[in-house]
Design brief:
Length: 213
């Protein structure tokens, strides 16, 4: 008797794409880390002037606790993808620990977006706290578009290709990304397209990892 397979989430379907792109996908961010990121937001500490995002609300975290720093930085050791990249870095004459250098939260409203940009440091990361929209509704919003794909709400990584063309990896971010994390080389260019079908915030946390000097 034929048994239908359970439909994979967008997160699960994206994992093979992440691997080929050199992006580490971390399935389970600890609840303690999620709780800190959700509750310790200082809305008096705006980060807008330091960021490329066309978002009105972006805020720095201060006093990052050790358990957040330790979890994030440990992913470099735990991920073969990031370890391979880390071993390519030959700029120091002695071993140095790595730390979260800066950490901020993004409250993205519909129509807002993050243009093409990169980050500073060794690695950067994104933690998805809340995805407010139904991705199927996003796909239908521009149903008559001339493009052969719809990029509403997508996270897109951009790579130079061998033949000098540009390769775009479009990631269909939906609710299955909540409480998940991506980590990637800081200079990997990326952008976030706007969403259109929800009045709630899309909430993500981003940060950069550097050597402690």
């Amino acid at each position: 008797m034929y048994m239908s397979k359970e439909k994979l989430s967008n997160w699960e379907k994206s994992k093979s794409l992440f691997n080929r792109a050199g992006v580490a996908a971390i399935d389970n961010v600890p609840k303690q880390v999620i709780d800190f990121l959700n509750t310790k937001v200082d809305k008096n500490n705006s980060n807008n002037k330091n960021l490329a995002g066309h978002l009105k609300e972006e805020y720095f975290y201060t006093n990052i606790p050790n358990f957040v720093n330790n979890f994030v930085c440990s992913q470099i050791i735990n991920s073969p993808i990031l370890q391979a990249r880390f071993k390519e870095i030959k700029v120091l004459t002695e071993n140095k620990p790595v730390i979260i250098h800066d950490l901020w939260i993004n409250f993205q409203k519909k129509y807002e977006f993050n243009p093409l940009h990169d980050h500073s440091g060794l690695f950067s990361f994104i933690i998805f706290l809340k995805i407010p929209y139904d991705y199927e509704k996003e796909l239908k919003y521009f149903k008559n578009t001339s493009f052969d794909y719809n990029v509403n709400s997508n996270l897109t990584f951009v790579f130079p290709a061998i033949d000098s063309e540009i390769f775009q990896l479009n990631i269909q971010v939906d609710k299955s990304f909540e409480n998940k994390m991506l980590m990637f080389p800081a200079k990997l260019q990326h952008m976030v397209y706007p969403f259109y079908t929800s009045d709630e915030y899309r909430i993500t946390v981003s940060g950069n990892i550097r050597f402690l000097v």
